Every structure is written in structure tokens, then in C-alpha cells.
Amino acid sequence: MDEIYEEDEDINPYFDDIALGSSTVEEHCRLLRRTLLKARKANLKFNVLKTQQSQTSANYLGHVLSDERIKPDPKKIRAIEEFATPNCKEDLQRFLGMVTYSANLHHTFQI
């Protein structure tokens, strides 16, 4: 999908997910139309049950995106807080993977 939308900086594909960023309803409609036209041309199909449209915030790749900022998904933070104390190397690696992913968005994070 990267090749299909590479010229559109407001269309952000990641594997089988796409996030659109717009400031106004009119801009969002134009962007959505452009996204769908390019998808049709490339024979891509979307599952309407998995779409979130015209949202002021959305979960995307473990983060919450809004017009104000990007912040960690509260579910991800809760999973970190509730993670049992690692008892083996694999548990520690799993824990470090979880916290490293969210660390760059959490200003009070420390290891």
C-alpha cells in the first residue's frame, strides 16, 4: 500500500491499516474520496465493519491520535502496569518490548 499512497502525506498506510489526517470536514471528504479512488484503481477492498470515519480521535498502531496530540493507548499502558513480574528471559523480553513501544510518547517513562 505504501506505493499506492506514497505521494499523499495526509494518507498514512501501515500494512493493512490507513490513517487519514485532515483539519476540516471538506478536507476530510476530499481526502477520503482520493483514498477510495486510489484503492479502487489498485483493486484494494476495505472491510466497512473495521472502519472508523470522521473521528476526532482514533486508535492507530497502539496510539491514540487526535487533533491535539499523539498519546499512548490507555489499554497499552494498563497492560504494562498489570504485567506480572518477569520470571524468565522471555517474560523480560516481552515486557521490554511492550514498554519500549510506548516509551517515546510517555514523558515520565524510565527504566
TrEMBL record:
Residues 1-65 form the Reverse transcriptase domain. Gene3D superfamilies: 3.30.70.270. GO terms for biological process: DNA biosynthetic process. PROSITE patterns: RT_POL. InterPro entries: DNA/RNA_pol_sf (IPR043502), Rev_trsase/Diguanyl_cyclase (IPR043128), RT_dom (IPR000477), Viral_Replic_Matur_Polypro (IPR051320). It holds the Pfam family RVT_1. PANTHER family: POL PROTEIN, RIBONUCLEASE H. This is Transposon Tf2-9 polyprotein. It comes from Trichonephila inaurata madagascariensis.
